[in-house]
Amino acid sequence: MKQDYVAPPYRIKMVEPIKITTRGQRVKFLKEAGYNPFSLRSEDVYIDLLTDSGTGAMSHHQWAALMQGDEAYAGSRSFYKLEKTVKEITGYNYFIPAHQGRGAEQVVLPQLVTQEKRYFISNMHFDTTRAHVELAGARAIDCVVEACFDTATYHPFKGNFNLDKLTQLIEEKGAKHIAGIIMTITNNSAGGQPVSYKNMQAVRKIADKYNLKIIIDGARYAENAYFIKQREKGFTNMSIREIAKKTFDLGDIFLMSAKKDGLSNIGGLIVIKADETLYNQCRTYIVPMEGFPTYGGLTGRDMEALAVGLNEALDENYMQHRLDQVRFLGDKLQAAGVPIQHPVGGHAVFVDCKKIAPHIPFNEFPAQAVTNAVYIEAGIRPVEIGSFLLGRDPDTNENLESPLELMRLTIPRRTYTYKHLDVVAKAVIAVYKNRNNLTGLTFEYEPPVLRHFTARLKPKK
Ligand code: P71
After folding, report:
1. Most buried in the list 8, 38, 68, 342, measured by CB within 10 Å?
2. pLDDT at residue number 127
3. Is 285 annotated as catalytic?
4. Overall pTM > 0.85
5. Distance 53 CA to ligand 1 centre (A)
6. Tens of pLDDT, residues 143-194
7. Distance between CA atoms of 262 and 258, rounded to whole angstroms?
8. Within 6 Å (CB) of ligand 1, which residues are found?
9. Do 159 and 193 contact (CB within 8 A), yes or no?
10. 12 to each of 5, 57, 58, how far by Cα in Å?
11. Residue whose CA is at the smallest distance from ligand 1 atom 22
12. Omega of the bond prior to 186 within 30 degrees of 0, cis?
């Protein structure tokens, strides 16, 4: 029998009306936005699936906590509350807040790069992580299992490192040239795909052999822990808090965009297990970048809400419903034949647009074409994760070809109902049926870094 989907373990206390638009209006809005949904006004979006980052709903406990924010510039009570929570969850010794994930990256990554140490190896770098690696003068190399690129075939842990390749890369580049191993959990760019505990343990062994640091990029570490509980032998009876703790034991540094599994609208974490020198360097460097080390770009009230949210994300009833919502949307699309990354991951359904629009070449951005069509169809805003996002080779300036051309339907936490997801499925299925009419896009304006945020495009004639 097919597994059912659980009802939400919460009820609605406050609502935010959303606007319904006509197709004619949406055609005009998208043109004005340079065919880039990042430039749409959110008011003109009916169901916003651009990201799950900072877009979730806070609980009444979090709203109540906001009132307790201590806005002192230095030594805020809210900082100490957040520090206690973070240390309890991770077991690490040192903590500095940052305004969000990339704030943490811009402080920590440059400390790890030297003239000699100039490569990071990751299962898959997220785009801002890659950008900060490159801004620090280093190079980012991905090393994920091949199964991740075969969207149609089931594999329980498509976020896993390719362990042979990891060893080979370290040998090839020379261990003394590796600045660190970045473990992205879940692996966002390949579909929110989990990394198994066994795989992370093997990465730790390799890191120990070559005396390398492991940086956990754990924006969605709680979702990863839940997948380990569900899919990996020996973890069924462990709580996701315990699994997460075991995961943190394998790392040296934990960087978190707390806008995801922190269930807050803003926030980032820099957490260091034992390296006091690195901690002191970060404490010094964060002042001109993010702010004094007891606020790091956050208000006292942000830190309060985050301290509560971090614990709520480890509640298994919450997590089951969250992952059921994603599975619900994935199942609907699959039943209609829409190609998706299978199985679905933690925070989104990733639609395989290489298969939907094989007639559009990578440098005319097939997934962006599908994304735009979904907006026109029903006012839903997905996001492209493919060659448009990947950008250009920093050495040759050539457009890079992404191995996957994906459209991400990202589900904000505790925000939409199953019925909203029905509307999403219907729109995507309609675009899929009409796929032969999709056309590619070219640049009208292309910024030099992280181009997908602000670029303007036009349809290819
Ligand atoms: C996501 C984001 C943020 C985003 C990206 C593109 C469009 C819209 C929003 C951010 C991450 C992430 C991982 C694994 C670091 C960051 C940066 N993800 N690591 O998926 O997923 O964190 O956004 O807080 O700066 O939508 P930050």
Report:
1. 342
2. 87
3. no
4. yes
5. 6
6. 999 999 999 999 999 999 999 999 999 999 999 999 999 999 999 988 999 9
7. 4
8. 50-51, 53, 100-102, 126, 128-129, 184, 188, 217, 219, 257, 259, 268, 383
9. yes
10. 19, 10, 11
11. 101
12. yes
Tally of residues, the chain:
461
Alpha carbon distance 301, 71 (integer Å): 7
Neighbours of 229 (CB within 10 A): 19
Tell me the CATH architecture of domain 23-52+315-459.
Alpha-Beta Complex (3.90)
Q: Which residue has the least CA distance to atom 6 on ligand 1? A: 51
* 61-111 confidence digits (pLDDT tens): 999 999 999 999 999 999 999 999 999 999 999 999 999 999 999 999 999
What pLDDT is recorded for position 429? 98
Kindly list the domain boundaries of the chain, sorted by start residue. Answer: 23-52+315-459, 60-312
Q: Which is it for the CA torsion 358, 146, 229, 55, positive or negative?
A: negative
Arithmetic mean of pLDDT, 329-343: 97
126 annotated active-site: yes
Pairing state of beta strands 268-272 and 94-98?
Answer: antiparallel
Is the CB of residue 339 less than 8 Å from the CB of residue 352?
yes
Report the nearest-CA residue for atom 8 of ligand 1.
51
Q: Which of 360, 380, 365 is nearest to 431 (CA)?
A: 380
Tokens at 205, concatenated: 């062994």
Topology classification of domain 60-312: Aspartate Aminotransferase; domain 2 (3.40.640)
Decide if 23-52+315-459 and 60-312 have a common fold.
Answer: no
Predicted local confidence at residue 70, as pLDDT: 98
Q: How far apart are CA 178 and CA 182, in angstroms?
A: 11
Q: Is residue 127 among the annotated active site residues?
A: yes
pLDDT at 440: 97
Whole-number CA gyration radius for the chain: 21
The CA-based angle 254-256-260, given to 5 degrees, is 145
- pLDDT tens readout for residues 10-57: 999 999 999 999 999 999 999 999 999 999 999 999 999 999 999 999
